[in-house]
């Protein structure tokens, strides 16, 4: 991580004074350390964070891949063999408004997934977070194991406006990444 955070930021973003370069790198390192710890607590398998400045801008976005293991007390319609079919669970997730806005069924590569998109505001738990961010979550079944699921969660502050064309384009880019998803 030191290689990515300290050497990956060769250019300091516009708006950061040159004499504040090391303080900026330390600030980014603390934020990344915090993200990694949160990802571990959430059962994260992989955390993707842009670490290179492009056009004097560091993109404020990330995505987390985590595994969801179905618990003993999960509610689900059973089919022959005692396990719910992935298609039934995905359809139910897509239409379940108890968890918030309904999701949509969508292909993630060759796998069927449920996708949600929403905007979240600062919750007060992090004083450095003072802007809303756009989020996209995908949930898909692990092939051959009806009790295991994969969640891929993306968030971006974009340009500070969760409804701007720039932020929506960043979200579209993540959807394009998910459209290439493959199991190997």
Chain-wise SSE layout:
Layout: H1 2-7, H2 21-41, E1 44-48, E2 61-69, H3 86-95, E3 104-108, E4 111-120, E5 133-141, E6 148-156, H4 165-178
Antiparallel strand pairs: 1-2, 2-6, 3-4, 4-5, 5-6
Description:
- The chain is 28% helix and 26% strand.
- By secondary structure, the protein is an alpha+beta fold.
- β3 (104-108) and β4 form a beta hairpin.
- What integer is the average pLDDT? 76
Number of strands: 6
Q: Low-confidence spans: pLDDT under 50, at least 5 residues?
A: 72-81
Residue share in β-strands: 25-35%
The termini sit apart by 26 Å
Helix content: 25-40%
Q: What is the SS-derived class?
A: alpha+beta
Please compute the radius of gyration using only Cα atoms: 19 Å
Q: Which oligomeric form is depicted?
A: single chain
Characterize the largest beta sheet: strand count, sense, and whether it forms a barrel: 6 strands, antiparallel
